[in-house]
Amino acid sequence: TQLLMKGLQSQPFSFRFPATVTSLHFLSVWSVSVGYWWVRRDLRKCLPSSIGPPARFARFVVPIALSLPMSVAFNNKALLFMGAGLNGIFGTVAPVATAVLQHASGRRIPPRGWVGVCVAFLGATIIGVGELQGFAAAGAGAGLSDNHPDNLAVGFMFAVAAVVLRATKCILQDQLVEPSAYARSCAPVSPMHAWAVQGLPCLAVSVLYAAWSESLADAYAGLSWDVLMPLSASCLSATALNLLGMFTIQQLGASSMTIVGKLNTIILVAFSAAFLGERLQPAVVLGAAVVLVGVALFEHEAAKAREKSAPRLPR
């Protein structure tokens, strides 16, 4: 999805309306969710009241509707100022942010798991230092729109905001589909049910943001048959990403889901270098490796903690 977004915003398409594209992504995933319940003849699942009392909708769905579209919009906005590979590497910090929020929300992290958190932060620091050094070298654009450090600073701010919001929505979605993990007694919500309810509010927020930050008239004028092909592909990819991500949260939990999701960093960096011509500094690649080591340490300790807490079956 990120590579398709970067391709849309680059030559020869130059369709630089990331918030508008984000709105189309949410329209696509919500339409698929509603269509799923229409086929099953249970459209009641699309109503806010289907997940429980209004307080539950206000506590979970409303914050998700605010954080999820803005995280995607900020991530797409960051692609205007940095390459897809570099943006993906910044996104490797998402498991750390999710772990901190998860710990604060009730799913405790084992003490040794924080070692992985510290290692991941060290890797993120190496990435930042490596990129700043890259600007000092002649011709080192590092995948940015031009060779000025201000672009990296702006892109970094959007990328960090996207990571924080993404972590927030993962925790909220985890509490919605698997409340027992947080010692909550309310009934769990299936992934397709959750998207049928949260899809329309997410779409509304993303459309409002697109209308505020971009010209919808210019976006419509920029459409062409050449643009529609990658645009449609990005909608299909984003729909699959959001639906499968929700199922992964249900099965693994928020923190583990973001950790598994960071495996795409290796693929994203390789594809960015192969197809988009991006050049990454060696220190950036080293930093990404350190972040992944930290993520692996954290998941190892979390798995051991889950194993100890699991009830033992009588022999």
Please describe what this structure looks like.
This protein is mainly alpha-helical. The chain contains 13 helices and no strands. Helix 3 packs antiparallel against helix 7 (149-177), helix 3 (54-78) packs across helix 8 (191-213) and helix 6 (113-136) runs antiparallel to helix 13 (282-309). The protein starts with a helix and ends in a 6-residue tail after the last helix. The model is unreliable at 138-147 (pLDDT under 50).
Structural key phrases:
0% strand; 315 residues; flat; mainly alpha; single chain
Number of helices in the DSSP assignment? 13
**Gyration radius, rounded:** 20 Å
Number of strands: 0
Alpha-carbon distance between the two ends: 48 Å
Low-confidence stretches: 138-147
Shape: flat
Mean pLDDT: 77
Characterize the biggest β-sheet: none
SSE diagram, text form:
Layout: H1 2-9, H2 18-39, H3 54-78, H4 84-90, H5 94-105, H6 113-136, H7 149-177, H8 191-213, H9 216-221, H10 225-252, H11 254-261, H12 264-275, H13 282-309
Summarize the structure.
The protein is mainly alpha-helical. The protein contains 13 helices and no strands.
